[in-house]
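Many introductory courses stop at the sequence. We go one step further.
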Amino acid sequence: MTSNWTELGDRCWVRRYPEWDLNIGVVAGSAGVLVVDTHATEAFATELLADVRRLVPGAEVRWAVNTHAHFDHTFGNSVFAAAGATVISHENAAAQLLERGPELQRRYAENPGVDPDFPAIPAEVIAQIATAPLVPADQTFSVAKVIDLGDRRVELLHLGNGHTDGDIVVLVPDADVVFMGDLIEESAPPSYGDDCYPLDWSDTVDRVVGLLTATTRVVPGHGAVVDAEFVRDQGAEIGSVANNISGLHHNGATLEYALRHDEWPYPAEHLAAAVRRGYEQLGGVRRTLPMA
């Protein structure tokens, strides 16, 4: 795992931070610098901002884009907003940050020790997450937005639901680089949380695949930079999860039975939320087989 910036194309970088194995992107143009995601706490975001300023000395950090609403990608927004950057996200992500962020913070404030979902996070970082100011985007969009960096453009696209209902991809066309946020992960299986859309996710990834070339460098939310083939393969695995959920539901399997199902492309313990969310989306079960 590298702790330095890697240039993926002309003035387009990624840095893989060890906390949550999180990828942060930077795109520089003649009119300023755009940062993709803002990290999880004020302290981490302050460090990130300093890293960006060292990377592109003298350039103004004008835009901070959130790929989705989760804390590790957004709780540093306040630092970038205070530095004069315009924070941008999908409209659903901005709403979700304010709706779900306080709930997460209350959980951490009430249980200030180690989080069982993230056991590697030290208690002092848990405390910082619990007290981070929640600053949603001050510019939002529903489908697409183009940011003019002066001598180049960056395209923001919402291509459907998946990891959340506010996922966006960040395209840098002249560098042939795409930042996908947590629609794709390299260092762990895709993260199915209680706000995921498991039945829609593979279709969304397929739409991204249609934008990629054989040479596109794709930055996942977490892990190493990948290519179009990796994205296509993971999209197929995500599609397999959706097909299993739909098949179980169609055949009359109860939720309890489906949760015990073990024929998945990923470890079953990572998929409980996917099954529950899928069953919620599909509605009541019509019993057609003798499944308990």
